[in-house]
Structure to design on (320 residues):
């Protein structure tokens, strides 16, 4: 029983979990929300080991309980950043990550917290011959909606019609 | 790891420190993709990458950033907390087998509204084995003052 017997036709189907927008499609003001995900103890220690960062605030339960100001272990800031953005990974191969601005750790995230992300389209401008630059913000919320992290993401995005931007680009 | 109390007054402008090197492996990239859910083909699909200019899988920006910042935690200052990052830029891709290290330069000290604290700005440069800069950013630290 195979309802899709022709592999050549598989490529005609839209792909799950993959955005395909181009520069022209990007609308400032558009917003979207991610799934939620709970951050477990195991993955925190795995991440701390992965990046060789065993700061006592994230990796030392005794320090965190007896000396730290929060009374429990934190999720590393870089991990909240990576997970918060990962929740918004759109798999759009027309885009390329250019950099991040204004990354701020607003509230601590603890092991067991549940996070989600809201992405807001902020602005776009033509930049290169084939690609423009767009800016979005990510707000990472925890639990019932407390803002934990903010940052802005710059991405290059291909034009659908590069000729239309030929006179506008910064780098010709 | 070295735990040292460094107060706002103790930070010296232009002081530089450098971390150990860390080779980025295939396992790092696959693990990070699984952890974050970022399965962009740039990191996961070796065959698709062959069709692109860069030809091979590259590390996630968040992975390079996390490892580069993690490496700087060989020095732990209990007087400082991480406040945020500015102007993070990816200058060159990091590929499987590349070895990165981080150079940290103190570039600015500023006032902060929180009583008894100041902001210290560190410039982070991440270099590969060819001494090319692959990532830069400015790290803001909120640091206690000695007089507080």
């Amino acid at each position: 029983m195979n309802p899709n017997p022709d592999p050549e036709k598989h490529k005609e189907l839209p792909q799950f979990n993959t955005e395909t927008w181009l520069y022209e499609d990007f609308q400032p003001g558009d917003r979207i929300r991610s799934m939620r995900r709970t951050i477990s103890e195991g993955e925190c220690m795995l991440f701390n080991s992965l990046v060789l960062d065993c700061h006592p605030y994230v990796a030392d339960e005794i320090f965190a309980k007896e000396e730290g100001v929060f009374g429990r272990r934190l999720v590393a800031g870089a991990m909240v950043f990576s997970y918060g953005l990962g929740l918004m990974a759109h798999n759009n191969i027309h885009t390329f990550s250019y950099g991040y601005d204004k990354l701020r750790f607003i509230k601590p995230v603890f092991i067991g917290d549940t996070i989600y992300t809201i992405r807001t389209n902020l602005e776009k401008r033509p930049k290169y011959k084939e690609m423009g630059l767009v800016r979005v913000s990510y707000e990472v919320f925890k639990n019932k909606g407390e803002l934990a992290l903010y940052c802005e993401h710059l991405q290059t995005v291909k034009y659908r019609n590069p000729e239309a931007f030929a006179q506008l680009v910064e780098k010709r | 790891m070295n735990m040292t109390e460094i107060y706002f007054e103790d930070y010296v402008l232009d002081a530089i420190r450098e971390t150990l090197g860390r080779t980025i492996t295939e396992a790092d990239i696959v693990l990070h993709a699984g952890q974050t859910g970022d399965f962009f083909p740039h990191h996961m699909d070796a065959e698709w990458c062959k069709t692109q200019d860069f030809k091979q899988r590259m590390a996630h920006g968040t992975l390079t950033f996390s490892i580069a910042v993690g490496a700087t935690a060989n020095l732990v200052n209990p007087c400082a907390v991480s406040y945020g990052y500015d102007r993070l830029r990816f200058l060159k891709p990091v590929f499987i087998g590349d070895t990165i290290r981080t150079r940290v330069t103190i570039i600015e000290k500023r006032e902060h509204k929180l009583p008894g604290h100041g902001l210290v700005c560190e410039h982070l440069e991440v270099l590969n084995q060819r001494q090319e800069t692959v990532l830069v950013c400015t790290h803001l630290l909120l640091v206690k003052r000695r007089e507080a």
Remarks:
- Chain B has one domain: 2-144.
